[in-house]
Amino acid sequence: MINPKQIFTWWHKQTLGTFLKTLFSGKFVGKDSFGNKYYKNKKDERWIVYKDNIEASKITSEWFLWMHHTLNEPPKSEKKKYLWQKEHLENQTGTNNSYKPNFISKLNSAKKKYDTWKN
Known about the structure:
The protein is α+β, with helices and mostly antiparallel strands and 119 residues long. It is 23% helix and 11% strand. It has a domain of 74 residues. A 3-stranded antiparallel sheet has the order 1-2-3, covered by helices on one side.
């Protein structure tokens, strides 16, 4: 069932046009670990219907290659290939989980030429 918010706004998973395209000409290809669903049609157009919030960085590298026609076959499994590989994460910029190297804070404290005024 389509949510009424989805009719005109793309940020609620998909628009009405994408919903109709998926309904009439979309062939379900697969689902990734985030719950995003991947579709294609007879003209080999490929698209994604996101599970929650729309964030392009949620697409894993295997599905990214398929979406951009680098691979013809969709990925079969989301298993790790090597021990050193980490799980895929969406872009963490602007969140508390974003990467902040230690040397930046040391650099900023070294540049400080005054003491802060304390009450």
